Amino acid sequence: MKRRRPTPFRPTAQAPLEALRPSAAVLLTRGLGPELEVYLVHRSPKLRAFPDTWALPGGVVDEVDGDPALGDLDVFRRCALRELFEETGVAGPGLARSIGDPGRRDALRRSLVQGQDERDGIPHPTAPAQWARLVSSVDDALQGLEPFCWTVTPNFLPRRYRALYVHLELPVGEQPTIHPGELEGGDFMRPADVWQRWLAGEIKLVPPIVFLLESLRRSGGDLERAKRACEARSAAVDRGALHVVRPVPGIAVAPLATPTIPPATTTNCVLVGEQRVWIVDPATYDHDERDRLLAHLSELRGSGVQLAGVLVTHHHRDHVGSVGAVADVFGLTVRAHARTLERLPAGDWPREAIVDGERIDLGTAPDGSPDWHLRALHTPGHDLGHLVFRESRYGTVVAGDLVSTLSTIVIDPPEGHLATYIESIQRVLGEDPGAIIPAHGGVAHDGARLLEGFLRHRRQREAKLLRALDEGGASSEEELVGSVYDDAPEGLRALAARSLAAGLEKLQEEGRAQGDGAGRWTLVRG
Question: In this protein, which residues make up the domain named Nudix hydrolase (predicted)?
Answer without folding.
Answer: 19-212
